[in-house]
């Protein structure tokens, strides 16, 4: 966050998300989260630059230290940049060092009661469990488009220590849509929302979202948050329709 500022809601939610998507190794550097997550989707291992840095000189030193951390682990640094959260000048510095801008994301939140009010009735057949089943995971992995080794993603789920829920929408005996929620002191983050192509537009994702909201409400989470690609129009429409407002947008800087 900028020097002298107080933590923002965006800072808080992104750090909650980092706990719900736990990297294999996390090191703190002046408040920055350096996350190493081999075998997982690359964004799980991005840097959260949430601490202060005193001026451009200090920023350059900090970035060099970050690059060394990742080089020692055989990977490249990737930064998550949120206006008002990342230190001033970091985005421009990374661009000068050859990091390309990648992706535009939307961090969104909603009161759980609002989501439940808008959920309506007529949800598909749903199942909510405390742990992921093989069918849940296979559906998520088939839709997610990641080319990571499935064992790395399974390991990530095993690292989650907070109370969690894994929801499935069923068509007969087949799992056609999934999502998961992680509770964290009055909030629940929603992750892994995925719907098979043949089930899209039929309320499966909406049903999964409603089931996770009901679970969150029953477990003391009165607010929900999620992250979605800004260009995923169908998902953005769904979340807006369910009452999720934007907290902030952010993007990544990736070494070329």
Automatic annotation (TrEMBL):
Gene3D superfamilies: 3.40.630.30. It comes from the Bacteria. This is Acetyltransferase. Residues 126-256 form the N-acetyltransferase domain. It comes from Saccharomonospora marina XMU15. GO terms for molecular function: acyltransferase activity, transferring groups other than amino-acyl groups. Keywords: Transferase. Pfam families: Rv0428c_C. InterPro entries: Acyl_CoA_acyltransferase, GNAT_dom, Rv0428c-like_C.
């Amino acid at each position: 966050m900028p020097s002298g500022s107080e933590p923002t809601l965006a800072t808080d939610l992104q750090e909650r998300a980092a706990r719900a998507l736990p990297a294999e190794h996390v090191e703190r550097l002046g408040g920055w989260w350096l996350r190493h997550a081999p075998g997982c989707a690359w964004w799980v291992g991005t840097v959260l630059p949430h601490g202060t840095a005193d001026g451009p000189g200090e920023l350059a030193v900090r970035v060099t230290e970050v690059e060394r951390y990742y080089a020692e682990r055989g990977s490249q640094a990737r930064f998550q940049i949120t206006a008002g959260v990342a230190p001033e000048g970091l985005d421009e510095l990374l661009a000068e060092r050859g990091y390309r801008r990648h992706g535009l994301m939307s961090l969104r939140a909603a009161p759980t009661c609002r989501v439940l009010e808008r959920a309506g009735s007529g949800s598909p057949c749903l199942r909510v469990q405390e742990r992921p089943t093989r069918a849940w995971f296979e559906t998520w992995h088939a839709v997610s488009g990641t080319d990571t080794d499935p064992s790395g993603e399974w390991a990530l789920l095993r690292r989650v220590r907070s109370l969690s829920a894994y929801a499935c929408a069923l068509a007969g005996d087949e799992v056609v849509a999934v999502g998961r929620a992680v509770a964290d002191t009055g909030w629940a983050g929603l992750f892994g929302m995925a719907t098979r192509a043949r089930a899209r537009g039929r309320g499966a994702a909406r049903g999964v979202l409603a089931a996770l909201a009901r679970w969150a409400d029953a477990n003391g989470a009165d607010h929900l948050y999620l992250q979605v690609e800004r260009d995923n129009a169908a998902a953005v429409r769904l979340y807006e329709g369910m009452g999720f407002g934007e907290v902030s947008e952010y993007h990544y800087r990736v070494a070329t």
